[in-house]
Design brief:
The protein is mostly helical and about 425 residues long. It is built from 17 helices and no strands. Helix 3 runs antiparallel to helix 4 and helix 3 runs antiparallel to helix 16.
Length: about 425
């Protein structure tokens, strides 16, 4: 009876921690972030066709817009990360959502590809601050034994945003869908008025310690390698999302599937499964008390499914969708990947790292799609994707080997000068 009471009390305590306003607002922010990010993937073809783009130009313009969006996230990640350490986690949560919301509403009014391109870049810049600032805030306000649950909630709500994008895109045309995203962002700004700043950041600020010094990431070899490895372990996720999911209609055609592939459905199934993957990896990490073991398990599982998808003859669209769902589940270590990035570095650099690392991973879509396009021109779309996938997964596994375990790491520290 005593054990049961203790267990119930612990569960209630965890629930109370996760229902705190800062945790919920960070989670909702990432939901809005992912809503926009994948709304474009879902509506890529429909929106470009309405702008009178067709044929081969659909793929070329789609890659261009995706890369501009990711370029915005790369630049925004650096800017918002430094701002998060210098000015505070909340300043980023407010500023990023405002820029994103305005750009998203503007996306609904575009009449040319050039306008679309500019606004996708601006939207990417705004979106870049949400995840890192939210994860930093959550890791700093929750006890170290429970911060894994908090980051799992944030990442899982983000994936729900992708599912919401799929639902909205089927209920509304692509223009109203962008308006809805912008409106959600503005509503979220009102909720953030009640959010308080991280106590860890406030104490750090009072000590007048130099914060957000991005040069610290490059003036120490050990710190630099740790930073690069943090990025590399997440790249396979965006190989799957940015190439296999986004261009699933083209892969379906190359595989001669019995029916055309709907990119929106592929994304929806993948991210529905990723919700389960995030929950599974997060709770499994808490059970095993290890981040690295679970990340390795998910990377190896994902790589195995990529090999099946690209090498085993598939002719059924239904089976292809099933593989997308399985791949989505195995990409569910996104939660742990973000958590590790936040836990590895001191409070004076945590927002910079937690914001730039996931955005550099998202931005890896740029070299990945360039490499994919190059390989595709020589060996075809299937083997081109396979070559890029092998490189992505190999780098991730090697990087993970050299990273330290962070499960019970005390994060109340600052980096050496």
């Amino acid at each position: 009876m005593t054990i049961k009471a203790t267990t119930n009390g612990s569960s209630k305590s965890i629930a109370r921690e996760l229902l705190r306003i800062p945790v919920l607002v960070a989670a909702l922010g990432y939901m809005v972030d992912m809503y926009d990010l994948f709304l474009f993937s879902i509506n890529r073809v429909a929106s470009l066709k309405s702008l009178h783009i067709s044929g081969e130009k659909l793929l070329a313009n789609g890659i261009m817009l995706l890369n501009l969006q990711m370029a915005g996230m790369l630049i925004g990640g650096i800017f918002w990360g430094i701002m998060g350490d210098k000015k505070g986690r909340l300043s980023v949560l407010f500023g990023s959502i405002l820029i994103y919301s305005i750009a998203n509403i503007g996306n609904g009014f575009v009449t040319t590809v050039s306008q679309y391109a500019v606004l996708r870049f601006i939207a990417g810049f705004g979106l870049a601050g949400e995840l890192g600032a939210g994860i930093t805030l959550v890791t700093e306000i929750l006890p170290k034994e429970r911060r894994g649950y908090g980051t799992t909630l944030v990442a899982t709500m983000g994936i729900m945003g992708a599912l919401l994008a799929y639902l909205v895109s089927h209920l509304f045309d692509w223009r109203p869908a962008f308006f809805i995203g912008g409106g959600l962002g503005l509503i979220l700004m009102l909720l953030r008025v009640r959010v308080f700043e991280s106590g860890m950041f406030i104490r750090l600020k009072e000590k007048n310690i130099k914060r957000g010094d991005v040069l610290k990431l490059f003036n120490n070899k050990t710190r630099l390698l740790k930073y690069l490895n943090s990025i590399l372990i997440g790249i396979p996720i965006w190989f799957v999302i940015g190439i296999l999911f986004t261009f699933s209609p083209e892969f379906g055609q190359a595989m001669s599937l019995d029916q055309p592939v709907d990119a929106g459905k592929a994304v929806m199934l993948g991210f529905a499964a990723q919700v389960l993957g995030n929950l599974t990896s997060g709770f499994l990490s808490q059970y095993l008390q290890s981040r690295k073991k679970v990340i390795l398990l998910f990377i190896l599982s994902s790589f195995s499914l990529v090999l099946v998808c690209l090498l085993v003859p598939i002719h059924s669209t239904l089976l292809f969708y099933l593989l997308c769902a399985c791949l989505g589940f195995c990409c569910g270590y996104w939660t742990l990947f973000i958590t590790v990035a936040a836990e590895l570095f001191g409070s004076d650099l945590r927002a910079t790292v937690a914001t730039t690392v996931p955005n550099f991973v998202r931005g890896s879509v740029i070299p990945l799609t360039m490499l994919f396009a190059l390989a595709k021109s020589h060996v075809g779309i299937i083997h081109g994707a396979l070559a890029v996938g092998v490189v992505s997964f190999t780098m991730a596994i090697v990087a993970l080997i050299f990273l330290e375990e962070t499960f019970k790491k005390d994060i109340n520290f600052v980096e050496d000068q």
